[in-house]
## 1
Amino acid sequence: MEPKYKRVLLKLSGESLAGNQKSGIDFETVLKICEPIKKCVDMGVEVAIVVGGGNFWRGRTSGKMDRTRADHMGMLATAINALGVCDALEQLGVDTRVQTAISMREIAEPYIRGKAIRHLEKGRVVVFGCGTGNPFFSTDSAASLRAAEIEADIILKATMVDGVYDCDPKTNENAVKYDNLSFGEVVEKQLKVMDGTAATMCRENDIPILVFSIDRPMNIYDAVCGEGIGTLVN
Ligand code: GTP
């Protein structure tokens, strides 16, 4: 197959890295997720990744904690995940670099846009950790920000559902999946594609989003090849 996109920003939820475990990292699962990423890189596609941290910690649901501190903990969780994803990719023979939005130079490179782009051009997968580096922003927002900065062709949002539905498919068996949506429809119908900040960022910068399920990791490869999976928002 031929790739449809030259440079993609893959958003992986933290949850997806836990596999059947409820939390933490299931490394076998991470390896499975990384196999299609390697296939994409081998095809010459430039892949940048933003990882969530929900498998360890979620700032927004931390209850009584101070939100800023809770979000700092969430950002550290994404850094752990970034290192895990990198390790799996390297075990598969893919060259990688981790860049973090919060400086932790002993562990990873700091985020530098120009360096990230050079790494991508050299066929390295760049995994961005620590979200945007700011509290009150989600890793979806980090994905949209980094996608805009590195001029990615699309955001591939690999998630736990296989697309965007008109209502919650978990609670409504008649829920209908959309194949295509405009950003206008997402706002109008109040559909949950990404959080509002992230969706606005993508709309204003003309970055399409493809939402699809990570249950079948090879979906990442199919998405890059433009196979009609998931829901495309543009
Ligand atoms: P080129 O410019 O293509 O040579 O990129 P490069 O990443 O190979 O060069 P560089 O000499 O910058 O980095 C060599 C190694 O050191 C890579 O594994 C980088 O990820 C790592 N590295 C670079 N800067 C930092 C840093 O600030 N902290 C940490 N922990 N590693 C770094």
Note: The mean pLDDT is 95.
## 2
Amino acid sequence: MSDMQTTSAEQVADSQLLGQLDSDLLPRHLAIIMDGNGRWAAQRGLPRLAGHRQGLRALQEVLELCHEVGVPNLTIYAFSHENWNRPLPEINMLMGLLKEYLHRERKKFLEKKIRFLPIGRLDMLPHSVRMLVQEVAEETQHFSCRTLAVALSYGGRSEIIDAVRKIVRDIQLGTVTVEQIDENLFEQYLTTYGLPDPDLLIRTSGETRLSNFLSWQTVYTELYFTKTLWPDFRRREILLALLDYQRRERRFGRVPESVPQPSKL
Ligand code: IPE
Ligand code: IPE
Ligand code: MG
């Protein structure tokens, strides 16, 4: 079969999958641990950079599909707190790629009205990266319908610790009392405040762990693990993940008969 035929056969299959999606049952927030770039490159005898570059292509496709089907909020894990332990050349390369990505995409964020929301300990980023990240965040902060949250220098535990510190400070200032602390108040101190908790979390590359991602926010998230390496995660893969999600019954501790319809959640 020629490449052309393969592509068109895949397109037919994709459009069938697309047709099976229930637009009332889409996640309002999708979180993704984009893993496997290094292994993708190693399998081809290429440097890790090639895997990260190809990973950006996959991201592009996933973002486009989310827009097309109507998933409004996406959080992607781009660089974890623990990733600072990687060799310096790889860290520098990832920071360079992030800058390249933001320079290229910032116009698109404005055109498509996407809010770019960086989350994590941004003060640990190199100065030029931090400046750019903050600029793009500021110029898109007024968009409210679609969000791309990017976890950078992010750790779920450090996010919780930072929230605790801010709450203690507010108690010392007298703007919050101990009695006021509950889950709703706590959430207001998290960097994801304003976003619903992720309905679905996808991790690629066969690893079945959360690696310190969105620890507070994922307590009732549906988890989807696939062996596909992130650079190979394309339209078809995301459609399969969304369809799998739509077949799940989210009980939230209830018994099946009293589970509300998704639109009422
Ligand atoms: C994910 O791919 C990207 C980042 C962590 C930045 P990896 O770089 O972890 O790829 P593997 O897990 O080594 O294959
Ligand atoms: C998690 O991937 C972080 C990102 C995808 C950015 P890692 O590849 O760093 O995670 P571990 O170390 O295998 O858990
Ligand atoms: Mg990895």
Note: The helical segments are 3-20, 37-43, 48-69, 88-111, 127-140, 156-173, 183-187, 235-246.
